[in-house]
């Protein structure tokens, strides 16, 4: 029941209420009072109507609030779902972080192994430098016949300069370690190849010079390198059935090296007699003969040739 209906009911049924209303309204004359009462009731009815309309607007607003509240709960639910998904992602990130830490540990172990390899390479490089320094002592005497080799050696110095620069960078740039190691391996290989080329060039020169000197004495023997087995191989070897030439080609020789070569040749003569028919002449070709080498070669009856010059006699 609305406020208006309740008010009219009270006016109809409750005389005391009706008289009280009339008294409050200052109604003296009944008819006038009734008219005033009707007017007041109408005003009150309009007021009540406005209240009803306001209440309806309030209900509409309340409904909108309920709708907004429902949307908010849906948003909260979506946020909770997103939070759950985020939690799952965070868990995955923790797992990834754990794997990353494990990989970092493996990288540190690999890094330690790499440093060990770098250390070994540097030690090997120092040994190679010793060989290069030894070869440089005889390099001047080979310049005219070994121009290509001189160019290679110059390149070798340039490569080794870059090696030293790269080794310094290894201490500063750990992330470039593998690339630097590969450069070191490549350059060490280049040094070894250069040494092999130099050794091969000395062997070729030795055989050419010995063949030429023999022909100058009327002996037609062409010498070359020979491998008898895994233990015995010689840089110089040639035979015509009556005379056999056998020996080594070295960058430099001293008394002790001459003695070792003599012993090796003698051992090969004992083990492979069929390879050494006729008279056997032991020969050593070198770029540089160290002090005492000529005397040791003469004492042992070895034909010593230093840079195309005979230091001991052939003895034919």
TrEMBL record:
Q: Which domain of life is it from?
A: Archaea
Q: Where is the DUF8196 domain?
A: 204-313
Tell me the protein's name: DUF8196 domain-containing protein
The protein's organism comes out as Vulcanisaeta souniana JCM 11219
Q: What is the lineage of its organism?
A: Archaea, Thermoproteota, Thermoprotei, Thermoproteales, Thermoproteaceae
